[in-house]
Amino acid sequence: MVRSKVASAARAALATSRGYATASSPVSAASRSHKVVVIGGGTAGLAISHQLLRSGRFVQDDIAIVDPALWHNYQPGWTLVGGGLKTREELRQPLHGLIDPKLKFYNESVGTFTPEENYITLGNSNKLNYDHLIVAPGVALDFGSVKGLSEALAAPEESAVSTIYSYDTCANVFPSIEKLKKGNAIFTQPAGVIKCAGAPQKIMWLALDYWKKAGLYDPTNPAGSAIKIAFATGTPTMFGVPKYSAKLEELRKERGVEGLFTHDLVAIEGKKATFARPNGAANVTRDFDLLHVVPKMGPHAFVKNSALANEAGYVDVDDGTTRHKKFGNVWSAGDASSLPTSKTAAAVTAEAPVLVQNLLRTIDGKEPDAIYDGYTSCPLLTEYGKVLLAEFKYGGVPKETFGKWFGIDQAIPRKEFYHLKKTFFPWVYYQAMVKGNWGGPKGWL
Ligand code: UQ1
Fold it and tell me: What fold is seen in the domain 141-296?
């Protein structure tokens, strides 16, 4: 840290004296080496770093974590913030406090990857050499994907537009639900890959339940209700897994929610939302009195524009081993990876142990033998007090933890799953998962 400060001060002084920035010719950029460099202090980065440390095979500073963030957020909880059930503050912790002191923490951004020569540069131009690299920086929200969205989110009271998808905005969602007494409420989901594909409708189901209890929405008489509810999604169905999609479609119809499928939000102007349609069909514009938006998401530019990315911009790893397809000492898990599953913290519970086992075997000169089956989960709030616990693997095939134990059908919303979602998962997450002790359905590691 001290060294990097000196280096950047020297660079700044030089840049000033020459009158231009010298990013390409740093004066004395420091160079350090680590056995493992982990990009990202999010769910995947923390779980994997601590699982590696717990293997007992690494000493002080063998493993480094790179992340510019000051805070770590329990993002699965933001739906609960949107539903007025938790505060955003109680879901976050300072990132440095979650990192074991045996790990070297670079609280910096990433500049570039040079996998051919086994190093990365940091945003401050310092160089980190590695034996193994783990890339887990997550995905970026693209607020620019919807015209007028950034401006609308900055003035939530006037615009009636909000989103649970960021720390800055999630606290505005519940007040907007409470404030609405009549009119059109529209909940959107974009076409394309997002994290937690169920969240765009979870917040809708909570809002519906809230308005129902407030006497403003009657599911048996939606046309005669003060509030009308529509789910506008760029996707063709309620959910990507047929088993759960069927149940959610049944709920949508039962509850009188209008389904606007293959409607991809592209613009907000005043109280009008415009949706693109496929196959050159004309755009559709709808008036709203409340709009809950989910922006498009995608890989960070520093990943997308690197030699590590596949065509879509994700870190190009093997679906089973999590090892990079071209660079044998590069690995990825979590949202930034190309693993073709739904992007959730639950997925990381299954990905992390596979990555760790395979990386350790590779260090020993053996071939990877652990295989990730695509396990992921979506605890889908369908009302206050009930959750449909979708759990599935590659191919959208259900893989239900509790079905196996108790013979129950997890497509049926239950109060027990609600307690898991609201109380147990946030607790076990900070208590064990980020420390490398939690294997999801496998329990404590
Ligand atoms: C899980 O382990 C986890 O992380 C703590 C979640 O929180 C985000 C989950 O949503 C799920 C489903 C799991 C999986 C664990 C079990 C016991 C099914």
Answer: FAD/NAD(P)-binding domain (3.50.50)
| Distance (Å) of CA 135 to CA 34, 124, 139 | 15, 19, 11
Q: How many angstroms does the Cα of residue 346 sit away from the middle of ligand 1?
A: 5
Measuring from each residue's beta carbon to the nearest atom of ligand 1, which residues come in under 6 Å?
76, 345-346, 349, 377, 379, 401, 425, 428-429, 433, 440-441
Mean of all residue pLDDT scores within the chain: 94
Q: Is 170 in the active site?
A: no
Q: Where are the beta strands (DSSP E) in 308-385?
A: 330-332, 376-383
Atom of ligand 1 nearest to the CA of 425: 5
Distance CA 14, CA 16 (A): 5
Select from 46, 348, 349, 416 the residue to mutate for testing ligand 1; criterion: most ligand atoms less than 8 Å from CB: 349
Q: What is the pLDDT of residue 28?
A: 58
Which residue's alpha carbon is at the smallest distance from atom 14 of ligand 1? 440
Distance between Cα 440 and ligand 1 center (Å): 5
Write out pLDDT tens, residues 44-95. Answer: 999 999 999 999 999 999 999 999 999 999 999 999 999 999 999 999 999 9
Residue 14 has pLDDT above 90, yes or no: no
Torsion of CA 254, 255, 256, 261, to 10 degrees: -90
Residue with tokens 């045996």: 102
- On whether the 2-138+300-371 domain is CATH 3.50.50.60, my answer is yes
Where does CATH 3.50.50.60 sit in the chain? 2-138+300-371, 141-296
Distance of alpha carbon 39 from alpha carbon 64, whole angstroms: 8
Q: Are 107 and 96 in contact (CB under 8 A)?
A: yes
Residue 196 appears among annotated catalytic residues = yes
Residue 33: which of 135, 134, 132, 130 has the closest Cα?
A: 130
Q: How sure is the predictor about 24, in pLDDT bands with cuts at 50, 70 and 90?
A: very low
